[in-house]
Amino acid sequence: MDEATRRDIDKITWRTLREAGEIQPPVRIEAVLNYLNLYRDYFDLQNPGFLDNAKHKLLVHGRKLATILRKIKLKAVLLNDERRIIIDRSLPEIKRDHPSFHEVSHRIIPWHRPYFSYGDTAQTLDPDWHEVLEAEANYGASAMMFCGHVFTSETHDAPPEWATVQALSKRYGKSMSTTLRRFVQFGPDLPMAMLVSTPSWMPKPQDQITRSRHLVISKRFAAEFSSVTPAELVDNVNSHAVRRKGGPVADFTCCLANDNGELQEFRGETFFNTHYLQTLFVIQREVEAKSIIVPRKVKQFLGR
User: Which residue segments constitute the domains of the chain, with CATH numbers given?
Assistant: First the structure.
């Protein structure tokens, strides 16, 4: 996705939030759905009657929609002609917002509309289009969930540490994983990385090739530490993580080589959510060189 597309989506999502009256966190999906005159229902992929039976029998390119949903593991679907968003009932409540905002993004991004006309999801499921459309909808969902520039402004000078992410998660009413991802991408202008990995004491899931599940990096990390691999980060986490049932399992420092071959010190903070390890890597050289000025609003919700 290029910068021009990102700017366009930022404008579209902020306009939607403003017109829906949701310009401060936490953004309520119900208010956005009400403004757009959309309804939200839930389905169960294990129930043959999901999507009101009619949708179960609907053929898309000669294949049942139910079969397609299982194959690509959709957690939500937009029925544009019915003004309905259908969410996978198996999702925990805290994880239902993201797919909801994701489908809202499909609805409000103008160039997505042709692919959702009359409830026809065929083109959105075409491999040539699916990846692009999904990336744009994910970007739009994150922008709405975190109030666009409001999150960026509040976190620009916030302490780059796990405690800040926890406070932001509560303030914005979003999961730790979703908040951590947004913090790394739109928080302080520092080399940072978010690693989600399977701990060494648990079997690796079949859908993972390695123990690294997700890696999200900041712009500065991408520009200055492009040679650092997920495997290198996983090794650092596994060498420090302590086996526990859940909660904080590691707080350590490690050295990573930048693109000039210079070793730089990073702090790693790891949290175990009983399924995966989530680690925030933040460069320490830059943190020590800067004086952190915490905005008054950030101090309030951090309790500092």
Answer: 3-145 (1.10.10.2910), 149-302 (3.30.450)
